[in-house]
Write a structure and sequence with these properties.
By secondary structure, the chain is mainly alpha-helical. It has a two-stranded antiparallel ribbon with strand order 1-4. The chain has a two-stranded antiparallel sheet with strand order 2-3. Helix 2 runs antiparallel to helix 3, helix 4 runs parallel beside helix 6 and helix 12 crosses helix 13. About 4% of the residues have low confidence.
Length: 329
């Protein structure tokens, strides 16, 4: 079966690049660990929080890459799952006064269930139809959030004043401490990167690439392409949910902007700039985007114009993204 998939994709066997992939994966693990050590020993609390934000958006961009880079499904509503997780966790803590750990577990399950329901409608289609449906569902969630003022406070959002702490018996972890949150987020990022790599190398990952390469042939070979696309749609939302939870810990604030299609556009740019179908590319793209945003926004309010210019250059001359181009070489 693996030979059949390779013939459909017309790519070389994975073993030819095994050593280079292992080296790049090791680069990620060591790079994140080194960044955490530097943040805890050298950086000020402001830059510690900036590093946390970079890791959160790196995780979010990688989750989108599972759809775009490996399956060929361009989603304009991916931020909806990110924002939905932040809202769900925030409401559980403030309105229902749940403990943090069960609130996190419920939030992930609820977001995954929402992705399952939305995905049932979306994955039946491809191309622009799929993209427009994800956009429509994302905007539907945004509209509900902005109009249900009694629950969500509308366009103003709401602040969470509670202390984010996880009780582990004799040890209590306060995620309001930047250093604790830094370690917590880095562990989740590394675990997510490891599990995503395992996923794309597993039979499901080969099936995703087969669908991206030629969906009609995968149908002919007997693949249930609708079920496979639904699986990866829910999995990508699962990782986006983790990113949304960490973002709430960082900001202690929830706003409907995090569900808007324009926010999905930013994540899409991170993924495309870094390089689709690599996982490492979107991670580096997100880190670069957040760093550039922090630097440029301190100089001018029109910093997005420079991001747009860089995006145009990449699309015209590096269509596979910066890291995707380097990978091919």
């Amino acid at each position: 079966m693996e030979k059949i998939i390779e013939s459909v994709l017309k790519v070389n066997p994975v073993s030819e690049r095994k050593k280079s992939r292992l080296g790049l994966n090791l680069f990620v693990y060591l790079g994140v660990i080194l960044l955490v050590i530097l943040s805890m020993t050298v950086f000020t609390p402001y830059y510690q929080r900036l590093v946390i934000e970079m890791m959160i958006f790196g995780l979010l961009a990688m989750s989108l890459d599972l759809l775009i880079g490996y399956t060929g499904l361009i989603s304009f509503g991916h931020a909806a799952f990110f924002g939905l997780s932040s809202y769900t966790l925030g409401l559980l803590i403030t309105k229902l006064e749940w403990a943090l750990l069960p609130s996190i577990l419920f939030t992930i399950l609820f977001t995954s269930l929402a992705a399952l329901i939305i995905g049932v409608f979306c994955v039946k289609f491809n191309g622009i139809q799929f993209s427009m449906l994800t956009l429509a569902f994302g905007q539907l969630l945004w509209t509900v959030t902005t109009n249900w003022r009694s629950l969500t406070n509308g366009l103003d959002g709401f602040t969470i004043m509670n202390n984010f702490s996880i009780n582990l018996g004799s040890v209590e972890l306060s995620l309001n401490d930047p250093q604790v949150l830094l370690i917590f987020t880095s562990i989740l990022l590394l675990l997510s990167f490891w599990s995503m790599n395992r996923l794309v190398k597993a039979p499901l990952g080969h099936s995703l690439l087969a669908i991206k390469g030629n969906e009609e042939r995968t149908k002919f070979l007997g693949f249930n392409h609708t079920r496979i696309k639904l699986q990866i749609f829910v999995i990508s939302a699962f990782y986006a949910s983790i990113a949304g939870i960490c973002f709430l810990f960082l900001k202690s604030f929830v706003a409907p902007d995090y569900l808007h299609w324009s926010f999905s556009g930013n994540v899409l740019m991170m993924t495309l700039l870094g390089g689709m179908g690599t996982l490492l590319g979107p991670l580096l793209g997100a880190l670069t985007f957040i760093l550039f945003q922090d630097w440029a926004s301190s100089i001018t309010e029109n910093w997005m114009a420079f991001v747009g210019l860089a995006f145009i250059i990449v699309v015209l001359y590096l269509p596979k993204g910066v890291f995707g181009w380097a990978w091919k070489r």
